[in-house]
Amino acid sequence: MSSLRLLPELEESLRRVPGIRAASVVTDPDGKPTEIHVVASRSKNAKQVVRDVQSLAFARHGIEVDHRIISVVQFEDDELPIPSRPIELPPRPVISSISIRIAGSEADVCVGVDFGNDHYEGRSLGAAAMNQRHMLVARATLDAVAELLGMPAEIEYASVLTMGGRRLAACVVQISVPRVGELALSGSALVRNDEADAVARAVLDALNRRLSG
Fold first, then answer.
1. Quick one: which of 204, 141, 187, 195 has its CA closest to 167?
2. Under a CB-based contact definition with an 8 Å cutoff, are residues 97 and 109 in contact?
3. Looking at the domain covering 8-79, what would its CATH class be?
4. pLDDT of 47-99, one tens digit each?
């Protein structure tokens, strides 16, 4: 069976730990880590690196990691390879347009998303009531990136909240991952000028790691 890497969020967090230069997390079909490989400098001993990995996994992601599945390779700082050119980050989708047309009691929402050199559009129809428009915007955004996502998904929740005196769009997207099952992803975005734009960005925030790899 091929190795699965269903925890890109954990890999990204590990790469931010001081002294860790690279990290790879292999998982089983349920998303449980089975192997964690890290490349680190010698600024800390290997046992401390292992403890850092365990602490971060539990504190930030709620994942308990057995120290026996963690392998550490260490180099002196001057032995670590230096990239010959700047690392090019993968593109991320961005909202390019949002239109909301009201006709009587019905609303027609269209959302445009740019991803690299490609453009995608999504659409959602529904009740024009104000308390429904956030869901329509979220669904249209999800519809726009459905081809990129490549797996079944639906919006469970989308709304704009007030937290600490600021307006914040929040959403929950449920996706169906092959051999894993249902996963709930959350996203958020501060309201700048327009609530619809913030809701659309919150959906992308929830999905960005799945879309950009």
1. 195
2. no
3. alpha beta
4. 999 999 999 999 888 889 999 999 999 887 665 555 444 445 457 789 999 99
Class of domain 94-212: alpha beta
Long-range contacts of 35-38 (CB under 8 A, 24+ apart): 35/3, 35/69, 35/71, 36/65, 36/69, 36/70, 36/71, 37/71, 37/73, 38/14, 38/70, 38/71, 38/72, 38/73
**Is the fold of 8-79 the same as that of 94-212?**
no
CA distance 191 to 200: 11
Candidates 140, 138, 150, 212; CA nearest to 175 is 150
Mean pLDDT of the region 32-48: 91
